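Appendix B. One record, verbatim.
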Amino acid sequence: MIAVIQRVSEASVTIDNILYGKISKGLLVLLGVKSGDNEEQAKYLSKKIADLRIFSDEQGKMNLSVKAIQGEILVISQFTLCADNGKSGNRPSFVLAEKPERANELYELMVTELKILLGKEKIKTGVFAADMKVGLVNDGPVTIILER
């Protein structure tokens, strides 16, 4: 699994010109599920994301987690993170991405785990495999890549 985590002051996802999910201060998580990924990885990444200390404390040091600041998380599935760009050519291959049904199971597991860790009302999502328009204001900017 690969997660691109962005600290945001706000983020949203729109599907078919309808605002589907919106958060204020927190994290935007783009999640790619690779072939062979499993439940242990989803649970590990969920806890790591909830506990990742990338928000500033009173001294301006990145020392607080999204949980500590009572922030929100917007989780978006993004199979293109699993792209294989190869050594030749310019068209990426997505053979490394998990099959959609299994990828959705692991995506949903991660969302469930985050809801347990932060509270149901703190987690928003897109729609798996939908054509989504994601907007964000990256705070910092701070972008972290986690892979497990």
